[in-house]
Design a protein that fits this description.
The chain has 20 helices and no strands. It is an all-alpha fold. About 2% of the residues have low confidence.
Length: 424
Amino acid sequence: MNYEVLSVVFLFAVVALGFWRKCNIGILAVGFSLIIGKIGGMSNSQILGGFDAKLFITLVGVTFLFGIAQSNGTLELIAKRAVGLAGNRTYLVPVILFLVTGLLSAIGPGNIPVGALMTVVAVTIAVEMGENPLLFALAAKVAANGFTITPLAPAGVLTMSLAETAGYTNIIMPVMLNVMLWAVIMMIGFSIHYKIYRIKPGAVAVGGAISEKKPVTRDQWITIIGMCVMVYLIMFRRLDVGLTSFFVAAVLVLLGVAKEKQALAKIPWGTLLLICGVGVLMNVVIEMGGIDLISEALLAIMTPATAAPIIAFISSILSFFSSTTGVVIPTMVPTIGTIVDSLGTGSAGFINLTSVMISSSLSSAFSPASTGGGLILAAYMAASNSENKEQEQQKLFGRLFMIAIACVIANIILSAVGVYGIIK
């Protein structure tokens, strides 16, 4: 029996079934790992070997810590105070949203929780100012996505882990900078298209969500200090991300800065299960030779010049129907190692193709069929006071879909001309 082909069929069947039945792909992945693993003659311990305990601890620790910061209003406070700095220079509001969202995404929570929080904040601010909510929402979402590949954020931790398994170390910083470059380019494009310079002056002074200045509470001050301590210990003392996050979170819980149950409820358990569950299945597919088969198929249509745009296209298509962090990254990164080895482009080639793959899959996240686009759509409909909500929803759905396609095309072009090869 051709186990390589069978493992790949199972992999894509799990993704297709999850999308069709709207199930968590992680649950399906673990369940089907038993079937395909036993067909391939793997033991129970070999099948379970794909569960990355360190990754799980990191994801839970970081998201729990920032669940505390979200439940006691610290993250929202930081966002609104930062936006208030714009004063009468209202054209700076989307830029500030971009920078604040990027910072929050980079230091730990990652694109999913920060994207959810800041998209709502951005749309609320836009509606209150009477401005186009799409520019504000896209500024927040592109920053949440583009600044999520860091040594502190879940997607960055996952990328590092997979890269090291493929034999590539010390690649996270150049990949991070390349993906951030994508975010900056997209933000410039959105700002030009939506004419950021035409935002009405003085609108930020309108009362309500923007100008409301509630005092910083004791709990919020302690939480801010805790977040700073976490970043210091990880970045400068080189402590483990997951363990450090749990330590700081434990201290905050003991100090009573937030209700533990509320913070636990903020952890995206579905996403964690998705990431770790797909990891189990991917390990089975790798052991059975499925990844080598996918890599060989891609190599058959690639040259060193066409590798980047082909990776960009495939990653985009996958992301339209699945999660970037949960499916695209764990599926594509293992293939990149084999492709780079065959093309002979070395570490620089791995950095380039990984950056292209991540940027391309994040470009698709603006689709209303994905989590990112869905958040923008839901946030706008919740904040809008229009009487024709159904009509507006259909119009926004179409716009978001076209934006996602435009971003994918732009990313393919950028990868083809070598933009993501600048930072190595």
